[in-house]
User: Fold these one by one.
Assistant:
Number 1:
Amino acid sequence: MSETLRNRTSPLRKPELPSYAVSPGAGLIRPATQCPSPNQDERPSGVQPELIIIHAISLPPGEFGGSQVRELFTNSLDWDAHPYFKEIRGLRVSAHLMICRDGELIQFVPFERRAWHAGESRFRGRSECNDYSIGIELEGEDETPYTDEQYLHLTAVIEAIRECYPHISARHIAGHCDVSPGRKSDPGPAFDWLRLYDGLCSGRRGER
Ligand SMILES: [Zn+2]
């Protein structure tokens, strides 16, 4: 493509953004790649999702585009494939969703069930955040800017989740660093919270 053409077309280019929707009973979001994780169980009786926790993950740390996070969340990671994996050998974790660098959305656990993402955690005095939260992993790491596609898809995904669980307000979105301070730092200083809030405010469904 010539420089002239690129300059003319790039400002007009809009990323394709699917219209996400959550099925109320099953807690599945569509469209998404379904990649069920065995690392899940029942939420406590009567407990619904009330909080969204944003994480960052990449395996090995800082390397993007591979399948290792999927393998970790499905207990199929080869612990001997990289020196770092020895440090996490045997870890059994998951998240409800992951948003890849290109915006691809992967669901590992239905929202109605408990994913194992927050560990020891506390939000406004209430512990055991896994019981009542939805965990969203961004493929990334603390110091590397997240992609435009990730912000767009994250915003749209949160809007769809809030359509299904309207009691989750913008005040009920936290980073892993917020619920596990001192122990966890993700999504890190690279995550632009104002950009997320701006996106939610200007979304077609508006802020609540
Ligand atoms: Zn995390």
Number 2:
Amino acid sequence: MLKAKILFVGPCESGKTVLANFLTESSDITEYNPTQGVRILEFENPHVTSNNKSARCEFELWDCGGDSKFESCWPALMKDAHGVVIVFNADMPSHLKEIEMWYSCFVHQQLLQDTQCLLIAHHKPGSGGDTGSPSLSPPLSKLKLVHSNLEEDPEEIRMEFTKYLKSVVNSVSESRDREEMLIIT
Ligand SMILES: Nc1nc2c(ncn2[C@@H]2O[C@H](COP(=O)(O)OP(=O)(O)O)[C@@H](O)[C@H]2O)c(=O)[nH]1
Ligand SMILES: [Mg+2]
């Protein structure tokens, strides 16, 4: 069975924990592990299977603490991650700056592909609503950006997250196939 590790990172109070709970609750939460600076949610998504359609995939969603006092744990969080989701509040100018750091540490320096990264502009209720897309500069502007608004359109982010999980699974199974080819050739 294929297992994928997905990190939720980003500034404090941006909605990572709320979103992580929402997105994993649809399927079975088999385990809940509170640890220092991170919470690990295990889940499956019935819509996401590995390349040979029938095989199940298991996901670990690592809901990481946004506080930089946990910086010493970051290498352990990043280790063997297959995907990084950066959650931020598009109405906060400081977040736009901060997510560049999260991208640099967790995606760029870890040599992950941009397709393994997803930006979520999370809209908390009463935060002014849709103000259009935030103006991001490269390299962030190349990444897939989705909006989440759990009060107004919760299914939208569920669907986008499923799409993202599929793309992560594809890249994991492709790299696994390549490794297998290297061994047998
Ligand atoms: N009702 C509601 N509250 C939210 C939502 N997103 C964030 N919040 C509030 O914002 C606070 C911070 O969110 P949290 O997910 O803990 O942020 P984190 O630090 O990024 O994990 C929470 O205590 C919630 O009360 C949302 O979609 N709906
Ligand atoms: Mg949190």
